[in-house]
Amino acid sequence: MEVLHEPARLRAVCDQARRAGERVGVVPTMGALHAGHLALIDEARRRGAQRVVVTIFVNPLQFGPNEDYSRYPRTLPDDAAACEARGVDWVFAPDREAMYPAGFASQVRVSGVTEVLEGVFRPGHFDGVTTVVAKLFGLVGDAVAVFGRKDYQQWCVLRRMVRDLDLPIEMHGMPTVREVDGLALSSRNRYLSPEERVRALAIVRGLRAAIASFDAGERDPRVLESMVRAPVEAAFDRIDYVAVADADSLAPIERVEGRAVLAVAAHLGRTRLIDNVVLGEDRP
Ligand code: PAF
Q1: Ligand 1 centroid from CA 36, angstroms
Q2: How far, in Å, is the centroid of ligand 1 from the Cα of 170?
Q3: Mind listing the domains of the chain with CATH numbers?
């Protein structure tokens, strides 16, 4: 496995693989890899990638001024070892200047689907995500890309971007990987104290209650939301949102008739956690 730092080198190895008739797979990450990321690597292989690149870049453009950019875990040696053990071909770990050299002035913005849920609480976040991912896709070229659906809205936004811009990327989203007790894996879980780790389970309790209620026939978004809101309000310090929305556009809905997602974001101390389920499909 080779660790690449230069964008031009990433482009060169991907071009070379395609010339040799190999399908390239890309798993974009910010590092601090956990079992959820490793499942994305396996999925890229299952989807036909003979060569897999994992990108590791803590992207400053997607963090707000009061967010955790500076304390975000940076664990490149461990991440590279985990990738190598998983059979990854290349890790692309550029530094900030390689991605955003002096004079960098471009932005990729998706409208609509970015303006709800996370978009309300993290203004500019998705512009940072789409800008960096468009750049990564530009370097990698024709490829299979795999993302986790824990960041459900990010998944919707990036799919929209790929369709709108006709990028030669085959997109795949993977269900959320969870701890045995149901907590969604996240690089940010390592911020939680043992006591917060216990309180964090209120999210999964709420999602399970809402799913049970949905399975029993409840279709009123307000009722389903309240089943998550109650335990999360009791255990967390602050809720950003609990919302049922259309599973594709993420627009609010009056009644669950088609596919719908139930998404939550809440704060425990200095840590912000997000989670979601597609009603009738996901079972945390
Ligand atoms: O999901 C992430 O880790 C990041 O948002 C991504 C897609 C790698 C862009 O920086």
Answers
A1: 13
A2: 17
A3: 2-174 (3.40.50.620), 187-278 (3.30.1300.10)
